[in-house]
Input
Amino acid sequence: HVQLQESGPGLVKPSETLSLTCNVSGGSISSYYWSWIRQPPGKGLEWIGYIYNSGSTKHNPSLKSRVTISVDTSKNQFSLRVTSVTAADTAVYYCARAVNGGRLEYWGQGTLVTVSS
Amino acid sequence: DIQLTQSPSSVSASVGDRVIITCRASQAVSNWLAWYQQKPGKAPKLLIYAASSLQSGVPSRFSGSGAGTDFTLTISSLQPEDFATYYCQQAHSFPFTFGPGTKVDIK
Output
């Protein structure tokens, strides 16, 4: 049974970098599309991007070049970095596994990241 | 980006009611459409993929239909645990996008 768990700081200052890690258990990270999705409080869902084939990435152009997604196969985890954050980046961040076809089968519980000084 | 709209934005219903939620895409997505259920404070849960395929473990009262630009999610007989927000999501072209959600609450 695949489980995902996000970890990282819950508070980030404006203009700094948001960094989160997703630990994957119950399955190998060497396959599938490992994704990050976020949800501002009380709002809808936004797909940030994903990593696949142990290193290829795709990210949402709406975040411009602020996003980096990476994977550490030795630790069975993948990570998200968002640079130059503003209050608009305040959201619950989810990691998830997508299968071919873009459906998100497994999700982490989510972690709230607040951008505030 | 492909925009998704959902209607209604909210619906009040009773246990046992049939509920239909629609999702419309700004351009054709073939059958690359999924539906999710989200309860407060929880991650979304996949219900339907490829427009009409039921995810393993999801009750058969949930069904999906449609292709191209128009899709529906039907809950045939609403149960107490079904009160939640439902989102559609297209996977035809990146960035994959979600609809704004439909909240199903108790009448």
The interface with chain B takes residues 44-47, 58, 60-62, 94, 96, 101-105, 107-110 of chain A (CB under 8 Å). The CA atoms of residues 12 and 115 of chain A lie 5 Å apart. DSSP finds no helices and eleven strands in chain A. Chain A has a mean pLDDT of 95.
